[in-house]
Design brief:
The chain has helices spanning about 1-15, 20-35, 65-80, 90-95, 110-120, 160-170, 175-180; strands at about 50, 55-60, 85-90, 125-130, 135-145, 150-160, 205-215, 220, 225, 230-235, 240-245, 255-260, 265-270, 275-280, 290, 295-300, 300-305, 310-315, 325-330, 335-340, 345-350, 365, 370-375, 375-380, 385-390. It is α+β, with helices and mostly antiparallel strands. The protein has five domains: about 1-35, no CATH class; about 45-180, 3-Layer(aba) Sandwich (Rossmann fold); about 205-270, Sandwich (Immunoglobulin-like), CATH 2.60.40.1120; about 275-340, Sandwich (Immunoglobulin-like); about 345-390, no CATH class. The strands form seven sheets. Strands 1, 2, 3, 4, 5 and 6 form a six-stranded mixed sheet that branches. It has a four-stranded antiparallel sheet with strand order 9-8-11-12, with no helix packed on it. Strands 16-15-18-19 form a four-stranded antiparallel sheet, with no helix packed on it. A hairpin with a 2-residue loop joins strand 4 (about 125-130) and strand 5 (about 135-145). The longest helix is centred in the N-terminal third of the chain and has 18 residues, at about 65-80.
């Protein structure tokens, strides 16, 4: 059409008597060209659309906290889906298509799938927060809208809210494994842009080295675990791959890596702990402690691993009054707590008599420590002691 227009325009310009008509033709054709979109690889129709609905509240969680957790699931899912292949629908998109009188959190099961179809979504993620044994749990489900198939489900345990928050960041993206590592439509898995799952039989392999601090972390390449933990080496095909680094009680690392031909394929990661390290001390060693109701041994107690949140430690020793202390820890904290000891005291009167039962002055030792002469009243922390007294000089005294 554009070629035809140029030819006609030149023809009219040569024949100047028809110039005005040519200009009208130019405007008309130019407008037509401007409003017809050109085909593009990035058109939304080429994307797999994913809708993440708000979580259902079955645990009396605050509404603002629930909305925050819902957004946290969305951001975790967005982080692992290749943007060139997937379109994550916004909360506002979804709200516009809800049935009258329904909230986003109400839509589960058939309602969620129906909303996904109206949105043109291929995949729908739903979830609910529940309370089990006084601990929070998040149940997530992934449905395919075309056939209403349940592709995957997972339960994330969190305990308290702050722990659930960190667990969502590291674990919720696993719900998408059937999509990332085994396409929901039955095709190849989608890793990076080549859409080819990793296979050890592929050609052009390069050695990659993986290191973590701390060590002994599991490495997964395109969803397949390596046989050894870090530090380790493995042969991987040149190209784009998804890497996952996992270690118990540490945040997982999920990112896209590029294995190159130049041989510089070393990947090092410092893992962030999901816990704090706490040392408990007291002026006396051997004092029994309880932490959050559980016996943790005798002082000093070092490097006790605690998850973020509120905790309570107390002295649990019959020689001392029950004294406790509340404290809060965050991820990565390393702190020491010095516990105050309030002794429970008792007294004993010590008298010495000779064979005629007449009073005598004797030196008194308690657990081999000289404490005075009889008659004597000794105040001690309650408990068992060995008392020794004599009127003769002793090696103990010397």
């Amino acid at each position: 059409m554009a070629t035809l227009f140029l030819y006609q325009c030149l023809f009219r310009l040569i024949n100047g008597d028809r110039l005005q008509r040519s200009m009208r033709l130019f405007v008309g054709i130019g407008l037509l060209i401007a409003i017809v979109p050109l085909p593009s690889r990035g058109q939304p129709d080429s994307f797999t659309r994913v809708a993440v609905l708000d979580l259902v509240n079955n645990a009396n969680v605050d509404d603002k906290e629930l909305e925050y957790l819902s957004d946290l699931v969305r951001s975790s899912i967005r982080r692992v889906l290749p943007s060139e292949d997937y379109l994550l629908l916004t909360r506002e998109n979804i709200l516009e298509l809800l049935p009258d009188g329904r909230t986003l959190g109400d839509c589960v099961g058939e309602c969620a799938i129906e909303v996904g179809r109206k949105l043109g979504a291929d995949l729908v993620v739903t979830g609910e927060v529940v309370e089990f044994n006084n601990e929070l749990r998040l149940s997530l489900k992934l449905h395919e809208t075309k056939n209403a198939n349940l592709l995957n489900s997972t339960v994330i345990a969190g305990g308290k809210m702050v722990v659930l928050e960190h667990a969502i960041k590291s674990e919720s993206s696993n719900l998408l494994n059937p999509v990332i590592f085994g396409n929901a439509n039955g095709g190849n898995s989608i890793i990076g842009t080549d859409k080819t799952p990793w296979s050890p039989e592929e050609k052009n392999l390069k050695i990659a080295r993986f290191e973590t601090s701390p060590s002994s972390a599991a490495i997964l390449i395109d969803g397949q675990p390596l046989p050894s933990t870090t530090p380790c080496k493995v042969e991987i095909p040149v190209g784009i791959h998804q890497l996952q680094v996992k270690r118990k009680d540490y945040h997982s690392v999920i990112e896209i890596i590029n294995i190159t031909n130049d041989g510089n394929n070393v990947f090092s990661y410092s893992l962030n702990p999901q816990f704090a390290l706490v040392n408990f001390k007291a002026k006396k060693s051997g004092v029994r402690l309880r932490l959050d109701g559980k016996d943790i041994g005798l002082t000093p107690v070092n490097n006790e691993k605690l998850f973020p949140g509120d905790h309570f430690v107390q002295v649990d020793d019959k020689r001392y009054h029950v004294v406790g202390e509340s404290f809060v820890v965050n991820e990565g904290d390393e702190i020491s707590i010095d516990l105050e000891l309030v002794p429970r005291l008792g007294a004993v009167e010590i008298l010495a008599r000779d064979s005629s039962r007449s009073p005598v002055e004797a030196k008194v030792y308690i657990d081999n420590k000289f404490v005075g002469h009889t008659p004597l009243i000794v105040t001690q922390i309650i408990g068992k002691y060995r008392i020794f007294f004599t009127t003769v000089p002793t090696l103990i005294e010397q």
